What we know:
It is a single chain. This protein is α/β, with parallel strands linked by helices. The chain has helices at 8-20, 60-65, 79-95, 103-109, 114-125, 129-146, 151-157, 163-173, 178-185, 220-230, 244-254, 271-280, 291-297, 304-312, 339-356; strands at 30-33, 38-40, 54-57, 69-70, 189-197, 200-206, 211-217, 235-238, 289-290, 325-326. Strand 6 (200-206) and strand 7 (211-217) form a beta hairpin. The protein is flat, with a radius of gyration of 22 Å. The model is unreliable at 161-180 (pLDDT under 50). Zinc ion binds next to loops. Zinc ion binds at residues 40, 44, 46, 71, 73-74.
Amino acid sequence: MDTTNLNPRVVDQYWRATIARDPRSDGVFFLGVRSTHIYCRPSCPARRPLRRNVEFFQTQREAEQHGFRPCLRCKPNEISSAAALVQKAAAVLAESDEEPLRLAGVAQQLRTSTSRLRRAFVQVTGLSPRDLAEALRLNRFKKLLRQGRKITDALYETGYGSSSRVYERSNAQLGMTPATYQKGGKGMKLRYAVTDAKRGKVLVAATERGVSAVYLGNSEAKLVLELREEYPQAGIAAARNGLEKWVREIVSRTEGNPPRQELPLDLVATAFQRRVWQELQRIPFGKTRTYAQVARAVGKPSASRAVARACATNPVSVVVPCHRVVREDGHLAGYRWGIDRKEQLLKAEKAEAGAAI
Ligand SMILES: [Zn+2]
């Protein structure tokens, strides 16, 4: 797919990323420079070419099929070796309880340099090694809690020095405290409201910090049951009031209207789910992406299936727009709340986006 087949808005995005040398765009697209027949990663340190000389490609293969050769500075053909390196390093990090993280030690173990390892991390995961180690450790921590381990034991086993630190971090990364995460949301207080919308009922459940669930269906009882099944140990109660603002915004979005206000989310997620859900929130209103495109965008080109799973487990439908992800052949694939709903929602968004232009 060369530039002429890409949506002009996407091309604009790519060009902005090119000017910014945005490392998060590495692996998402490649730019070919017509005057030199060289193709580069977006983050290439070389001088920026003139806009009119640039052609964009979504894969390295496409660039090479169009006669471009890999740049010797940013080595765009070496993404796979970077990915392999990161995978090995992640395995070492997952086992390491060292605090603080000594990247040099990991690099030495893998017979590479610290700077090459750091670069590989940013290229492949979009995260610094330190961020990734945190995410991995949180995952192990969560797993231990799920196995019924005591919090203090899990803290000790994952190498957290003091409990206050994990609580601090978990607020940002888990969206809830470990104590509430344990045993199906024990200690967690969820309030919910079910509202009639154009195409059925919408359940919105939230903690004090943000929205935790958005379900769509025809039966109020069934939606509430699903919520109880997802958080069997949480305190769940119908909200008398206080949720109206969030509910209004969400109902409007389920009817195919563009977002009018930001919604705080309070989600339970693995690092990977979080990355995918963040990426889904970047899909422009009225547009769709394929699972493979999302996989590439999160730096895991071979993880289409894992992306599909992350979409299927999205607890806040519509707010995290998993309905905007479709199969490579254009078919809609599945939707937790029914394929018809997905189709109607996409149709409404497309019409609305078209009307706005
Ligand atoms: Zn380059």
